[in-house]
TrEMBL record:
The gene is nuoF. Coiled coil: none annotated. InterPro entries: NADH-UbQ_OxRdtase_51kDa_CS, Nuo51_FMN-bd, Nuo51_FMN-bd_sf, Nuop51_4Fe4S-bd, Nuop51_4Fe4S-bd_sf, SLBB_dom. This is NADH-quinone oxidoreductase subunit NuoF. Residues 328-373 form the NADH-ubiquinone oxidoreductase 51kDa subunit iron-sulphur binding domain. Belongs to the complex I 51 kDa subunit family. Keywords: 4Fe-4S, Iron, Iron-sulfur, Metal-binding. Transmembrane segments: none annotated. The keyword Membrane does not apply. The keyword NADP does not apply. It comes from the Bacteria. SUPFAM superfamilies: Nqo1 FMN-binding domain-like (SSF142019), Nqo1 middle domain-like (SSF142984), Nqo1C-terminal domain-like (SSF140490). It holds the Pfam family SLBB_2.
Amino acid sequence: MSEYLILRHRAIPGLERLPVYLEHQGFAAFKKAVTELQPAQIIQMVKDSGLRGRGGAGFPTGLKWSFLPNDLWPHYVVANADESEPGTFKDREIMESNPFQFLEGLMIASYAVQARVAYIYIRGEYWHIAKWLDQKIAELEQAGLLGENLFGTDYSLRLYTHLGAGAYICGEETALLESLEGKIGQPRLRPPFPATAGLYNRPTVVNNVETLANVPLIVLHGPAWYHNYGTDKSPGTKVFSLSGCVNRPGNYELPFGVTFRELIFEHGGGVPEGRTLKAVMTAGASSVLIPMDESVLDTPMDYESLNKFGGSLGSASVIVLDDSVNMAWLTYKTVNFFKHESCGKCTPCREGTYWMNRLAERIARGQGEAREVELLYQVARQMQGKCLCALGEFSTLAVVSSIDRFRADYEAVVTKEPVYG
Ligand code: L3W
């Protein structure tokens, strides 16, 4: 696709600089919102556009904004810039190269729910981006686009960046809010959802960076225009982070509904050295393994079509696996990550990821018995549906799907003789 909605900096050199962004209709949408539109009108526009959350769940953005009660104040907006899913590197490019479009989206969201303070919660390893965004925020304040009484109205807005400290769990929205409040980053029980009881127990919108970057264009061009891209139920484009066994890894902005074949072969240049495509993960480590063959390659990638594989598009971090990869090894890599990142608050995840890691490691190292594969499977199955948040649940997906779908890979590595007698 030559037309970019989100990675517009690839077509417009210098877009990360305010004068260039302003030359390309920058902040026209925010000005229009604050001076011409009622908050409810903006929420309706975003609802009509069909924009869905890009962090992974695909929840309708306008609907989320509409949940904030009007009898409890203040309202907050928090941008989730804690991008930590293995294989996900799209928000980084947006913030580094098209920062003003993201900030403008955050500002429009804030106006739409009448928040006067918004936070950008950004992963600690992106400290240089936090500093960069602080500079951009200062430029906006100097230019009179951010601060008190914007465009002569009584609407005022302040933006703040806040660095995380290296914990994957803080990308989960309620753990993020705990961390932002200065507490240990552990998830809260939901409901209540942040929309009613979020930051400091006040109504809060939490949106992913990419989600917010869509908003200025929707306000500027209207919801009908947005439906020119993507599918009926998943309109717009998606930035796919493509990695793994592929010739041209990187971020690819493509309309929803693009097929695996187009993404991996046309854009990504196929798998290296003539090897065979074996499986794909679509939501980073939080994915089921989707076995790949000719019949699967033409599946459209959107929020609906992957359900038939027991999977979801997630954050569209597409990890390509070829026939050089043993799935027992891959499973060990994923559960090792989740064991390290489990926050320890709920028992099924704390204990389950620990035991899955021990078993998966033995198996991957060729020290496991066949019955330990069954035990690994049972541990994962027993965790499902019992964890406090998505992290525990997702830690089981590669385990269960790899044993169900790639059992031969386990048979190739387990010892033939019992190890423990
Ligand atoms: C008010 C209700 N709000 C749901 C809100 C909720 C949240 C959103 C989605 O994300 C995803 C997973 C992986 N009243 C509500 C309501 N909401 N019902 O809607 O909620 P939910 O629970 O469906 O998902 P979630 O737990 O927020 C989990 C994806 O994350 N994942 C991780 C991605 C990591 C990154 C990254 O590193 N950048 O994105 C893995 O793919 O797909 O679906 O806001 O409050 N009744």
